[in-house]
Amino acid sequence: MHFTRRIATVSLTLSILGFWQITLADPGNRAPWESEKTAAPWEESACPGGLSHAFRLGGEVNNPTTFDLQKLINLQEDLKSQNPAVVTEITVSFQTGAGPRTETYYGVPLWDLINNEKAAGGLQSGKSGQNPKNAFLRQYVLAEATDCYGTVVAIGEIHPNFEGKQVLVAYAKKASDGSIQYLTDTDEGFARLVVLGDKAGGRYISNVRNILVLSAPASPLKPKYFWQH
């Protein structure tokens, strides 16, 4: 009889605890992703893909900003008025998964996009590591597409005093009939990266959504890892 009463007491206690758990868990205060019908933010796709209509220009620059098609066209016109010799049209040949391809693109040089006062306004000093000399040579540009495909271009590649490579942020190309075709009328998004001299098209990122200037981190290796004389 005593044993039976203990079971009843325990059962009653558990029932009370269960009741309070249900009562205290106010559904109105639940995060949306606690519902089976709503995905948590970290489960949602950050790389939906699709056509881009603008890109963010930021990172270690003086004037982070956003560019859409008209703003990119305006910048190209401003650059040509400032310096008629600036390269805003390049013809490139590169290898793709479907075979070789040759295109003529129109746009804004990546170097000018970063440094012109009407664009990003120049580089800011980044994390220079232990030796700050020529800190910009540790910097690079990360270009990222809407599907999160990305690539980097070192500042030393496009700096006029170093390689001076022509890298274009293109918004149009020459159509088969010789007319200028905006990339918005293609599957390339409104802007794509064009890297003159690259044999393969891996860095020819289309549907650009981010162009960020960053710095390479300091070496993670400790002195003991370096060979000593």
Describe the structure.
- 21% of the residues lie in helices and 28% in strands.
- It is built from four helices and ten strands; from the N terminus they run αββαββαββαββββ.
- The termini are far apart.
- With 229 residues, it is an alpha+beta fold.
- A hairpin with a 2-residue loop joins strand 3 and strand 4.
Q: What would the principal axes of the Cα set say about the shape? A: globular
Helix content: 10-25%
Instruction: Give the name of the CATH architecture.
Output: Alpha-Beta Complex
Biggest sheet character: 5 strands, mixed
Element pattern in H and E: HEEHEEHEEHEEEE
Number of strands: 10
Identify the CATH class. Answer: Alpha Beta
End-to-end Cα distance, whole Å, is 87 Å
Sequence stretches where pLDDT stays below 50 over 5 or more residues:
1-29, 31-36, 39-43
- Strand-pairing-aware structural class: alpha+beta
The CATH homologous superfamily name equals Oxidoreductase, molybdopterin-binding domain
Number of helical stretches of at least 4 residues: 4
Major sheet strand order? 2-1-10-5-6
- The CATH topology turns out to be Sulfite Oxidase, Chain A, domain 2
Average of the residue pLDDT scores:
82
